[in-house]
Amino acid sequence: MNVVGTRGQRDRSAALRHDCFQSLEQNLPAQRGVGQPGDRRNKGFPRRDAAAAREAAQLAIFSVQRQLEAVEEIEEPAAIALCDRGTLDSFAYWPGDPSHFWREVGSTREHELSRYDAVIHMRTPGARGGYDQRNPLRIESAAEAAAIDARIEQAWEGHPRRWFVETSPDFLAKVRHTVDLIREQLPPCCRLPQPS
Questions:
Q1: φ and ψ at residue 124, rounded to 5 degrees
Q2: Contact 196, 152 (CB under 8 A)
Q3: Is residue 21 within 8 Å of 182, Cβ to Cβ?
């Protein structure tokens, strides 16, 4: 299962997800050290503005994501594996010709969509909805974050089991809604009782 949204949303929701599902799920580690283009604080992968450099960054991120998922399948299978992103997120950030992306990664969009059982897209709030840069993980302006959110939505378009969690002034309510969607994806035998 992939939970998509901006970095700040994913990081804050990880703690609540862990508390609710720790015995049933494995959270794949975030790709620390390989951030998105523009994240100049991240020293793990060089950030350059040239299209070729941005393409190289997305190819690296795609590869790291694939390998994190592979390790999960081999070493610690769980009833559910939560990813803070999926391979199609790299496609959303790809600056060049889409066919070039698929050729470089040796896959197709259809194949990558089929690798994920469910996708939960946590919407990015707008400037009036609480998006600001007080959170140090938010490096984009509200307008830039909205554009990225739209590209991520488009990248995952066509997935048969995709849900959107709309923005809310109460972030914990948004996270609870996300956790409920995750819980619904578990087989009945694996569902934990709802916290009161």
A1: -85, 130
A2: no
A3: yes
List of residues 6+ apart from 189 with CB closer than 8 A = none
Evaluate whether 160 touches 117 at the Cβ level (below 8 Å).
no
**One-letter amino acid identity for 11?**
D
Is residue 15, in this structure, part of any structural domain at all?
Answer: yes
CA dihedral 83, 39, 113, 94 (to 10 degrees): -170
In whole angstroms, how large is the CA radius of gyration of the chain?
16
Whole-prediction pTM value?
0.75
pLDDT less than 50: residues of the chain: 4-25, 32-33, 36-41
Q: Is residue 196 part of a domain?
A: no
Find the domain containing 90 and state its range: 2-190
Q: Which residue intervals of the chain are DSSP H helices?
A: 7-21, 51-75, 87-93, 98-105, 109-114, 142-155, 171-185
Within a domain: residue 103? yes
